[in-house]
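Hey, sorry to bother you again with one of my protein questions. A protein chain has come my way and I'm curious about its shape. I'm sending you its amino acid sequence along with the backbone structure tokens. I owe you a coffee for this, so here goes:
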Amino acid sequence: MPPSLRARLQPLRDFVGTDAYWLAVGLLAFLTVVPGATSEGYFQTGKLFVLGAVTLLTAAYIGLNRARFQFSAPRPVLWLALGYVAWMTMTNTLLSSQPGTTFIGWPGWRGGLLTNAMYWLLLLLMLHRPKGDTERQPWALLLGFLALTSLWSTAEFLGLRPWLGNAWLGAVQGDFRVTAFPILSVGNSGWISGLWPLLTPLALVLAWGRRWAALLLTLALLLLGVASTQGNLAALVFSGMMVLMAGLTVRRSVPAALLLLACALLPAPVTSALVGLNAQLQSAGSVAGGQQQNQFTAEATGQTTSERLLIFTSGLRSAAERPLTGWGYETFHNNFYGHLTEQEREPMLRRIIKAEPDEQVDISGVAVVARRADGSGPPRETTLLMVKPHNYLIEELYSNGFTALLFLLPLLGLMARELLRARTELALFALLAWLGYGGYLMGWFLNPSVTPLALAILALGLRSADRAKGLMVDR
């Protein structure tokens, strides 16, 4: 390579593998969309392509320049992660119930072996930091990203659609049209709602530093994000995190602790205010699309909770049938209905097909069928594919068997221990961010919108812990 070109590329080479580099990868994955895509491509394909390309290129660069990097976690983390990837490879190929599906994933989801293995390999790459690097706090970048996504989500919830349907950006969206679903531009609103528990600990960092203006802005943005995506679990985790952080803050600043505690009560009122504003804009003809509904009601929350419990029940019963190897990723739709009793599944089936009082419901394969009790008229049929158990740990049990926990639980425990021992601001932030994101994953699953950023935050915390240990050795 000519010396002049080498000199020009040096800043880029110095950037690869830094904390800012991996945060940029997480943000890029979140914001990636595919022009002219179907819903599958819009939510998944582009993001997975970006992550795959980054993983391969960065792995090649680190491999060629391995003398410049060091691994920022205890060695057992590396071996457990590699062992876990090896085991999931076996359970989703040689031992899979449907190797063709489990390797790539169900069409429209693409959350099979390739995607899940890539997440863990990406984390291992993130843990390779340049030797001698210095710690830089990411708060300004994360706050700016929070502002962008929260205001974007709120605008779409209100019907303003700053991206989809915009006359200037219409070419970008292709044939994928606007619906009333919030934050459709960058992903399913249920998936995006995991962003708010992940970034909630920003408020703790700012509260401890008594940075009042930034704290108030962060809390407002978090509340708008939670309200506009209307994830019941995300709201619950957000409120729980606020109570926890208030307890951690009370000795440093009572006013800040009270402010955090008050925010735990605000997701529902903020949602009601946004729903009311959307109704006003609809009445004035200022926005198009269907009117938003408040999902933080007792009825909606109760229905969501009862259905989630049914999904968990079926997932655990299915896992118990193949306890060692599991069924493989994204095959749950083949087992979901069959592992529920008729009494357990009937209310859900009636809701799915919108059955009339005089209709009887049943299942035929993965389809829901409704027939009139007197036999008159043709049967009606619809399909709801429950591809995932909607709980990360149950999904791992279902997909990879109880054996997977022998790798996964010690791996998570080791990383949590490192973050706890470090006692650095960034390590504490990463620990609490994953506590929030982990709570969200108890009712959802990994996805390419938020998971890459979550992995980057975890890696930054472990890098900070590694630097702290290096400083103690130098002393």
User: Anything to note?
Assistant: The beta strands are 69-71, 128-130, 359-364, 367-372, 380-383. The chain has one domain: 14-293+388-474. Residues 14-293+388-474 form one domain. The radius of gyration is 24 Å.
